[in-house]
Write a structure and sequence with these properties.
This protein is an alpha/beta fold. It is built from 20 helices and 24 strands. The chain has 2 domains: 377 residues, Alkaline Phosphatase, subunit A (3-Layer(aba) Sandwich); 105 residues, Gyrase A, domain 2.
Length: 550
């Protein structure tokens, strides 16, 4: 009897142990396939990596610092192609590949098949809603799927995808081909958020109500430094910055309420941090009214903060305006995170944040700092090349176009005058290499016959289409910028344009960081692994394993 009791006791312990083990195992198995209720993709336009570190002491605890401290940071994150501009940047982040594959070769580019400049999201088969513009927008020039497309397909189109940005291309491309909606800002008329008939026949009631309110008017106010004097930036008034029409000085304060009528109406908000605040307001309304992240099927909210790019172009990397814009953006991100916590729930959503490109310091500023620099003018290059070719071959207009550092020969002229393209190519390459602003020159054949050992050729190859791009590609020297007097710009393969932040935060993300090199096309497959869905169909990037290490 005693032995039976002992046996019963051990059997009971075994049963309890088995129950505990299976419960834990079951929870572990479920967690492997558990998906967040919502994914939030944030792209901060023209955000250099060092904007995280340079302005760190001015950020609050609930914005960038929260994402870094409680999430995962890739500190050595780069673009792996040129040109580094907005359209390709957004397409690459969401498709997991490069322009050579996804087809978005620039914001606009000279299409050698159509023999004209094309804009990345213009679509004459559709019209824009709530604006007098007849041009509709769509992702029809993007030849691959995006992570947002794959999420929709995985859940039989029950996932909801909403994409928002001030810029049309920054809203259209992240949403992919199957987004429920993409919205962008039209400031020249009434300051409204608009869309295209590609997505819908008319704007939803909540968007119309938002537009009918004072959403834009409330930001027609004084723009001053949020936290007083900033020591991390240069002198407030300097010769490197632009001014709004009607201003006598480029220093703070900027009286937006007084200047807006002279600066394309509500479009002036794009050039201020208030454009990012307006974007946040609209994104929060989308969260509420579209019921994003409120059920077991994962939704996706894509947000691009475009005003950082507009401010950067006008004032430059070293300006107090850029610093103030990021400090204010930090507050907008904190506001967004707080709403996500409330509406979706802490640890119920996953967020990533990156940028579509970096930026270079103003060349005049660099020159005054005794750093090698200069300017490059594509129109001057085209005109001088055509003149040199005319002197040697006696023919006008051999060069048809120069754009994004790519040269296209005029095939009609070559055929008419029976000119040898190989001979012309050799001549042009030699002429380009004589120029002090140019460091490298590659032919299209060299680029596509490349074996992967040359870093600069890699960048060109990943951004070049043998069918649609130029016959010759040239690369300027480090520190050389387009012919621009004020502010900053971008598009090169130099580190100041390629090195951008990458932050992951929320459900399924480990806390930590890596200094191993990661690249823009790695974002989409990383998120695909987390979501348990197919990679976008053109993916060339790889999942970042360290994001999931626990």
């Amino acid at each position: 009897m005693k032995s039976f009791k002992i046996l019963s006791y051990f059997l009971s312990l075994s049963a309890i142990g088995y129950f505990i083990f299976t419960t834990i195992y079951d929870k572990k198995e479920k967690s492997l396939f558990e998906q967040p209720k919502l994914v939030v993709g944030i792209v901060v336009d023209q955000m250099r990596y060092d904007y995280l570190t340079r302005f760190w002491n001015h950020y609050g605890e609930g914005g960038f610092k929260r994402l870094v401290k409680d999430g995962f940071t890739a500190k050595n994150h780069h673009f792996n192609y040129v040109p580094t501009v907005t359209g390709p940047g957004h397409a690459s982040i969401y498709s997991g590949t490069t322009p050579a594959v996804h087809g978005i070769l620039g914001n606009d580019w000279y299409n050698r098949v159509e023999r004209q400049m094309v804009y990345c999201v213009d679509d004459l088969n559709h019209t824009s809603l709530n604006t007098s513009s007849s041009k509709g927008k769509s992702p029809h020039r993007m030849s691959v799927s995006t992570i947002t497309d794959e999420l929709r397909i995985h859940h039989q189109f029950n996932s909801k995808v909403i994409s928002i940005a001030i810029k049309d291309r920054s809203a259209v491309l992240p949403g992919g081909h199957s987004a429920n909606a993409a919205y962008w800002y039209e400031g020249e008329q009434d300051g409204d958020w608009i869309s295209s008939t590609y997505y819908m026949d008319e704007l939803p009631d909540w968007v119309q109500a938002f537009n009918a309110g004072d959403s834009s008017e409330k930001y027609l106010k004084t723009w001053n430094q949020l936290k007083g004097a900033y020591v991390e930036s240069g002198a407030d008034e300097n010769p490197y910055e632009s001014t709004f029409d009607g201003e006598e000085s480029n220093a703070f304060p900027h009286e937006i309420g007084e200047l807006w009528s002279k600066n394309d109406g509500f479009d002036i908000l794009k050039d201020t941090p208030f454009g990012n605040s307006l974007t946040t307001d609209f994104a929060i309304e989308a969260l509420k009214n579209e019921n994003l992240g409120t059920d077991a099927i994962t939704d996706f909210l894509a947000i691009s903060f475009s005003s950082t790019d507009y401010v950067g172009h006008e004032y430059g990397v070293n300006s107090k305006e850029v610093q103030d814009t990021y400090i204010r953006l930090d507050q907008d991100i904190e506001r967004l995170l707080n709403v996500l916590d409330s509406l979706v729930g802490q640890n119920e959503y996953t967020l990533f944040l990156s940028s579509d490109h970096g930026a270079m310091h103003n060349s005049e500023f660099l020159r005054d700092a005794k750093i090698p620099t200069g300017k490059i003018n594509k129109w001057q290059i085209r005109n001088e090349l055509n003149q040199s070719l005319k002197e040697v071959y006696g023919v006008n207009g051999i060069i048809e176009n120069v754009d994004y550092n790519e040269i296209v020969f005029n095939q009609d002229v070559l055929k008419k005058h029976k000119l040898n393209q190989k001979e012309l190519t050799s001549f042009v390459v030699a002429e380009l290499m004589k120029r002090p602003e140019i460091e490298h020159v590659f032919t299209a054949e060299e680029v596509h016959g490349h074996n992967g050992l040359n870093r600069m050729k890699n960048l060109v190859q990943n951004g070049h289409s043998l069918k649609y791009s130029g016959d010759i590609v040239f690369i300027q020297k480090p520190g050389y910028i387009s012919n621009r007097r004020f502010g900053s710009t971008h598009a090169s393969g130099m580190n100041y344009d390629t090195h951008v932040p990458l932050l992951f935060y929320g459900q399924g993300i480990t806390k930590g960081s890596t200094v191993e090199r990661t690249e823009i096309p790695d974002i989409a497959p990383t998120m695909s692994v987390l979501l348990g869905i197919s990679f976008p169909n053109g993916t060339t990037g790889n999942p970042i394993k360290a994001v999931f290490d626990h």
